[in-house]
Specification:
homodimer; alpha/beta; FAD/NAD(P)-binding domain; 2 domains; 7-stranded mixed β-sheet; 5-stranded parallel β-sheet; 12 helices
């Protein structure tokens, strides 16, 4: 009898389909009660990534697997490793394509949650897609880590002139937001703490150039903190070029708008985001920047059963900062709201409370830009580490990151290349 | 004055060039006194790899970076990330090609040590190079780990027949030596301990097939241990096909000599080794299997200043087992011998003492095949772990591997795919 009851119950549950496995989607999944919904997750990435610590993995301060959590660890939800290639709102179904075998298939939904984030924007600048390294996924961080070491190994080859060595050791970072700043900071630490020992005599040949189109770094932070960052970067010999942008990239050269041309070893591109192909091609209501227009209940405008959240969305009269924090809070709200809806309870609109931002700027210094506290320096770095250890999504992640920090402190960063 | 003395001293030291970064080369490097030689290491791989534990990394029992050690951690030796493409004995120089930028250059030597190992032998069987996964380097293990997870994700796609799922979940291992056996064992453990929880309902669809051309597994082990392995593998539902070999591989099918054809998800190829291109094309004296012929002082026959050791060599009247152990002992001997030669001391020929072999066969069971002790089972598995922890080349490696074992025990293996 129990068995039959279960089956009936399961077939009566609505099909909730979630697109994505980032902060938004992961939070929806964690909150949603699988006794109330049949939950399906569609994402090409079978794990959640704690992006806030991604820059630390590019040089091995933290290992890749320490900040990811398999989606399959969420029990009773069905995960499908595939891209969503299209949405048919009229038929309540989505079109999918598997990442490995490229098999195509459709999935029916009763309720759809779109939390696919955005992709890196190359602004159609020539050569960027081909030669620049993006920093968005763990695989990106791994590619950067390999390339950074290759730059040092290349500069170690015999018979090179000082100029040739310098060219291999010129690291370009495009974008003065948190990702670009934190990558530059991590690279600086790596050079300071590890390269000195393992690639001797290179200190004076290395150059880090951080290029930003706006007139200051970390635009979303307090002006004082932004200036402090500039001061620290100057001391760290990170060459910051504001009001500048890259106009073209070739295999060996970077062209800047002021007419200067640089040879380079590595170009990391963290200059901004843009809509995914799915959203760009979608017929759902969007604004001029290709963001889905949602209401205060995170429902896509004019739709009865399609919700959206995170970077790929905007609430017209109340745009939130495009951050992991926003996506996470929206996800948590939506998961709870969906549970209430299934139980026929009333739901309240989403309310956002900004907890502020943090950024690491190298040499054991960080920035905190919160409502209660605006600080910088070593103590803030301790605060930065404490907050992220707390925010990591699993006990395993917390233990692994703590262990990685210990390992880096004691043994230094691994320069093995594979 | 001190400074001048140092320079003169340095220019009077002989140039010792070591090719490779495996067990043989690494042991030479560890022993050689850099006060006596200017040491240069040429290898495309900038790290030493403890290959004995490589199968454990293919499913995440141990992480990749836990069993590698950067060559640059050896102080006062110059490392160059490049392939050696040729040796000109008459001119005492080698030709090199950098791995990343493909730049070509030459390096002079006074003494050359060749320890380049071997590569995987595909026996020119159609499709093997294209579709099979070798298991030799950390990058190979990473590719296998990604593919294993992809097989499970592919089998989880909606709308598949049971037959289609089975095809994705048929894992083929070619080669019944230690590498093939240990990979099959690790894969079994992964399925038993992790897949059951994270990919439910797959247990009965999975098949592991281990194919071996000879009439038994682990040919170099005692017959009883070989039979024991067969018994355990039967219990673990690993399908062992002895006296069988693969005749052709396509994208989806494996053709076996008995006429059977299998669809498959992954083919791991560990069927034997063959000479590298460098050795094959070299004019140094070789035997019929393209192994460099060396004497009891590890000197290449007829050469005054070229030494060779490890898998790529053979002493005609006393062939040693082709193992990491042999290479390591030869490397240690040669490093010490070179120090003595530089000091004008007499050297004795290399003496080999076999310490025996170990292998992991899954389900917390291992084999030990030593002179003093031939054992198998759980206690031997504890012994197996203790020996390898002892043999790992650095304190960092020891701590990391212990931590990985703890992590796998507590949290299971990570199925994140990137």
């Amino acid at each position: 009898m129990y068995f039959c009851k279960e089956i009936i119950h399961s077939s009566m549950k609505k099909n909730l389909v979630v697109l994505g496995s980032g902060f938004g989607a992961f939070s929806v999944l964690k909150e949603t009660d699988t006794n109330l919904y049949n939950v399906k997750i569609i994402s090409p990435r079978n794990h959640f990534l704690f992006t806030c610590l991604l820059p630390s993995t590019t040089v091995g301060t933290i290992e890749f697997r320490s900040i990811i959590e398999p989606i399959r660890n969420i029990k009773d939800a069905e995960y499908i490793q595939a891209y969503c290639t299209g949405i048919s709102e009229n038929n309540n179904l989505i079109y999918c394509k598997d990442t490995d075998t490229k098999k195509e298939f459709e999935i029916k939904y009763d309720i759809l949650v779109i939390s696919v984030g955005e992709i890196t924007n190359s602004y159609n600048i020539e050569g960027v897609n081909k030669y620049a390294y993006f920093l968005r996924e763990v695989a990106d961080a791994r590619r950067i880590r390999i390339k950074v070491i290759d730059c040092f190994e290349n500069a170690s080859l015999p018979g090179l002139s000082e100029e040739e060595k310098k060219n291999f050791l010129r690291f370009f970072v495009c974008g003065g937001g948190p990702t670009g700043v934190e990558f530059a900071a991590e690279l600086h630490d790596f050079i300071e703490e590890d390269v000195r020992k393992k690639y001797r005599g290179f200190e004076k040949l290395i150059e880090i150039i951080l290029i930003e189109a706006g007139d200051k770094l970390l635009n979303s932070f307090d002006a004082k903190l932004s200036e402090y960052t500039l001061k620290i970067f100057k001391r760290q010999k990170i060459n910051v070029k504001t009001n500048s942008y890259i106009t073209r990239v070739t295999e060996n050269e970077i062209f800047v708008n002021d007419g200067s041309i640089y040879n380079y070893g590595l170009l990391v591109w963290a200059a901004g985001n843009t809509a995914t192909e799915l959203i760009r091609n979608s017929t759902l209501p969007k604004n001029s920047r290709n963001k889905l227009i949602i209401d205060h209940y995170l429902k896509v405008n004019g739709s009865a059963n399609v919700y959206a959240l995170g970077d790929c969305t905007e609430i017209p009269d109340e745009p939130f900062p495009v951050t992991a924090q926003t996506a996470q809070r929206q996800g948590k709200y939506l998961g709870k709201a969906l549970n209430k809806i299934a139980k026929g309870k009333e739901i309240k609109p989403f309310k956002y409370k900004d907890l502020g931002m943090l950024a690491y700027i190298g040499s054991h210094k960080a920035l905190a830009n919160t409502n209660q506290y605006k600080g910088s320096g070593f103590a803030t770095w301790i605060f930065w580490r404490s907050v992220y250890i707390t925010k990591l999504v699993s006990l395993k992640n917390k233990i692994l990151v703590l262990f990685d920090w210990f390992k880096t402190f004691v043994f230094g960063r691994d320069v093995s290349n594979f």
